[in-house]
Amino acid sequence: MTGTLVLAGTPIGEIADAPPRLAAELGSADIVAAEDTRRLRGLTRALGVQTSGRVVSYFEGNEAARTPELVEALAGGARVLLVTDAGMPSVSDPGYRLVAAAVEADIKVTAVPGPSAVLTALALSGLPVDRFCFEGFLPRKAGERLGRLREVADERRTLVYFEAPHRLDDTLAAMAEVFGADRRAAVCRELTKTYEEVKRGGLGELAAWAAEGVRGEITVVVEGAPPAAPADLGPEELVRRVRVREEAGERRKEAIAAVAAEAGLPKREVFDAVVAAKNAAASSPPDGKGLS
Questions:
Q1: SS3 sequence, 132-179?
Q2: Contact (CB, 8 A) for 154 and 244
Q3: What are the φ and ψ backbone dihedral angles of 157, each rounded to 5 degrees?
């Protein structure tokens, strides 16, 4: 029988937040793959547990080389526990490559749920949490960072980012430039730790605050884009948005409903615009811009 890959969430700050199963898995796993073996030793000491299996490092620099070795051990029946420095493996941390390889090899993958900086920051932000998307770390280069932000400038869902403290002021300034200085946001610092802080305000205000220097682990939560005013979207733009969604794989009915919700318009108005464009395309030479 093949083994099992266990992804174990670890505390993001307060050690008492460790899930009860974590200690049991650390003590019984055949192999413990850790992002930082020194951090792992500190964790096991704090939990009062001793690993009985082999401990190996598994971090960004050796992920590609070590993954085949771990998959081979899994195929041979080993129980492999994967832990990172904080939070859930594979979420902006090492692990995705191993999970994908294990799935490809038809090996069972399970998890020990644990603390999450993403969900904790969302809950504390005071911003809408019914729909959100996690964007991870932004590119370090200014031009690439602006480009990535522009891709989600119209995103209605709440956005969550990780950021390094020494880049926070530049990132918030770029967000203020792309999203608007008044867009609400929350900077969550040192979550569950002694100096936990949640700073809320407009992006422009937060950028000025961060310019003075900020320390610690940072998660940034940004309010989604407001719905476009109906007057801002003419029939051509409505049709274009429907076409973009259809080209992405949505059925026309769902695309029309989504565009209507985005624009704050009745579905019938968007439907009529689509029908009019279709009729216009049918009565004139094709130009590649209509709906068929």
A1: EEEEEECCCCHHHHHHHHHHCCCCCCEEEEEECHHHHHHHHHHHHHHH
A2: no
A3: -75, 155
Helix, strand, coil percentages, rounded to 5, for the chain: 45, 20, 35
Q: Are 126 and 23 in contact (CB under 8 A)?
A: no
pTM of the model: 0.76
Strands (E), the chain: 4-8, 31-34, 54-57, 79-83, 108-112, 132-137, 158-163, 184-189, 197-202, 218-222
Are 100 and 130 contacting, i.e. CB atoms less than 8 angstroms apart? no
Give dist(CA 206, CA 94) in Å, integer.
30
Report the distance separating Cα 21 and Cα 77, nearest Å: 21
> Considering only CA atoms, which of 230, 149, 152, 216 is closest in space to residue 187?
216
Please write the tens of the pLDDT for every residue from 247-276.
888 899 999 998 888 888 899 999 999 999
Q: Give tens-digit pLDDT for 220-230.
A: 999 999 876 66
Tell me how crowded residue 32 is: count the other CB atoms within 10 A of its CB.
25
| Helix axes of 37-47 and 20-28: crossing angle, nearest 10 degrees | 120
* Beta-carbon contacts of residue 44 (< 8 Å; ≥ 6 apart): 26, 50, 51
